[in-house]
Fold this protein.
Amino acid sequence: MKLKQLSLFLENQPGALSRPVRLLAKARFNILTLSIADANQFGILRLILRDWEKAKKLLEKNGFVVKVTDMVAVEVSDSPGGLSKILDVVEKAGLNVEFMYAFTEKRENKAVLVFRFDDPDHAIKILQQRKVNVVASVELLQQEASCI
């Protein structure tokens, strides 16, 4: 049920983002989704890829510091209020969302969001009990997605 996300710390300067992306592209890794956040001195590039273990090794071999994080993918109605309904469940259950971002692929009339919860196993259990569709990692990783 959990997806593995790679997080890379990058200097906040021109060209820092393109280096790992080009490295992954050259090695034929398909980035399924990503997010980038910045602070004053550095940025954090977050990636979800199919073969994350090999991608991690490649990035580390090329000097990147890589952290692996468990993420939870959830289907959300792609309509006004869809996200609000999910967040109501999350809030009422007392789950802490550390960050989230969207998958580039849609599934019929639903969007897929990935969440970083402070306790992903507990979050999965609560979401499933409340009839929220937690997307299996196998489903997402087998989908054909265009390369970013």
